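Example record used in the benchmark description.
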Amino acid sequence: MSQKKLINPPSTRTSKAPFAQGVQVGETLYVSGQIAQDADGKIVGVGDMVAQARQVFTNIEVVLTEAGCSFKDVVKITCYVSDMRHYAGYSKVRAEVFPDADIASATVISPGFVNPDALIEIETIAVTGSGG
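Model output (structure tokens):
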């Protein structure tokens, strides 16, 4: 039976969060919902969806890398966007990160996050070595 391995990169704010940034079980990595926080806990790009989406994907990449994965290993993302008018900005950045559109994906409009300056949150599932 596979054991749970907690993934908490040093540059993440795990010490202040009551959860792991990622949990790996066997070859599967579950990345906790990431918002556009920098290492000091400040929101990057307040009011700017493109800047926030880029920071979120940067945060996801940090967790993926710590677990020995990359964006090529991502199999599914679930994105929560605060308002439909921000969808285009998110979609633009997502296409930069996943140009081949080779992942399962869902987007949900969620009118509020714990941090009121956050416009976006993304959860990620990756499978180690699946990207070749």
